[in-house]
Amino acid sequence: MSNALLDLHTRYIADRDAWMATQDENGELTAAGPVYEQAWASCKDFVRYQCQTAEDIRMKVAVILENGWLEETADMGFDDEPFTFRDFLRTLVPGGKS
Fold first, then answer.
1. Among residues 48, 33, 38, 39, which one has the least CA distance to residue 81?
2. What is the pLDDT of residue 80?
3. From residue 25, how far is each of 15, 18, 20, 37 by CA, in Å?
4. 3-state DSSP call for residue 76?
5. What are phi and psi of 35, to 5 degrees?
6. Quick one: which of 20, 66, 79, 81 has the most CB atoms within 10 Å?
7. pLDDT (tens digit, 9 = 90+) per residue, 42-95?
8. How far is CA 74 from CA 27, 43, 81, 87, 97, in A?
9. What distance lies between CA 60 and its chain's CA centroid?
10. Closest by alpha carbon to 13, among 70, 54, 79, 98?
11. Is the full-model pTM beyond 0.85?
């Protein structure tokens, strides 16, 4: 995995975990506020990362398939900006246009 993709993954995990730590006593999460917004931004950054090598592709797909929120985001796109499943697929083509 390239350093850039590794950094995005590390940041996503940290931001997601920070958001998950905001669960209330019933385990409910709120999709609002600065902690959520940072986690959402990190999620989108990881999903839209333009792969440069075959190793990037393998690792990106493996990470996404292991994480429901990343997988759903890659599949459904972003609801707050234009980015579709087709755009996600383009990120898997080294040298492609994301």
1. 48
2. 87
3. 20, 16, 12, 21
4. helix
5. -70, -45
6. 20
7. 999 999 999 999 999 999 999 999 999 999 999 998 988 899 999 999 999 987
8. 25, 9, 13, 9, 16
9. 9
10. 70
11. yes
| Sign of the C-alpha dihedral computed for residues 17, 77, 47 and 81 taken in this order | negative
| Residue 32 contacts residue 86 (beta carbons within 8 Å) | no
Classified as helix, coil or strand, 25 is: coil
By the 10 Å C-beta count (0-12 exposed, 13-18 middle, 19+ buried), 96 is classed as exposed
- Residue 8 sits at φ, ψ, to 5 deg, of -65, -40
Residue 78 tokens, joined: 């972003």
CA distance 19 to 59: 24
